[in-house]
């Protein structure tokens, strides 16, 4: 199984950050996997943002729940992250990952929030 993030590398403050994770080699609807978004800001540790599971149920970090939405397109075997009202503090390397069973991490994509 491989995961690949895609999306813009630069987002303006107050806008919505949107990233897509394309999964190959396995289905996102396979029980009982969870598919997550994780980020790492400069000088900080990994932060779990939220997940969508094989059934489409979603889970969010309490600290980001008000600004985060995770959805999926099963026909494309993709899941997406939307982070609203971004600020420069949301600048980070963003990863998608399978976080149940053997954990698998995408290569990551750098997102900078700047005007």
Category from helices, strands and their pairing: mainly beta
Number of helices: 0
Report the uncertain regions: none
Mean pLDDT: 96
Q: Element order, helices and strands? A: EEEEEEEEEEE
Share in helix: under 10%
* Distance linking N and C termini: 36 Å
Instruction: Please state roughly what percent of the residues sit in beta strands, choosing from under 5%, 5-15%, 15-25%, 25-35%, 35-45% or over 45%.
Output: over 45%
Q: Please tally the β strands and state the result.
A: 11
Could you tell me the radius of gyration in angstroms? 13 Å
Shape: globular
Describe the main β-sheet briefly: 7 strands, mixed
Topology:
Blueprint lengths: L1 E5 L3 E2 L5 E8 L9 E7 L5 E8 L4 E3 L7 E6 L4 E6 L8 E7 L5 E2 L3 E5 L2
Parallel strand pairs: 2-11
Antiparallel strand pairs: 1-3, 3-8, 4-5, 4-9, 5-6, 7-8, 9-10, 9-11
């Amino acid at each position: 199984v491989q995961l690949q993030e895609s999306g813009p590398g630069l987002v303006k403050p107050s806008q919505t950050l949107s990233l897509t994770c394309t999964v190959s080699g396995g289905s996102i609807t396979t029980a009982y996997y969870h598919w997550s978004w994780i980020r790492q800001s400069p000088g900080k540790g990994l932060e779990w943002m939220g997940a969508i599971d094989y059934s489409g149920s979603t889970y969010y970090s309490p600290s980001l729940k008000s600004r985060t939405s995770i959805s999926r397109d099963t026909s494309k075997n993709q899941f997406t992250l939307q982070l609203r009202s971004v600020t420069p503090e949301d600048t980070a390397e963003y990863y998608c990952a399978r976080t149940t069973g053997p954990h698998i991490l995408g290569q990551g994509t750098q997102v900078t929030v700047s005007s």
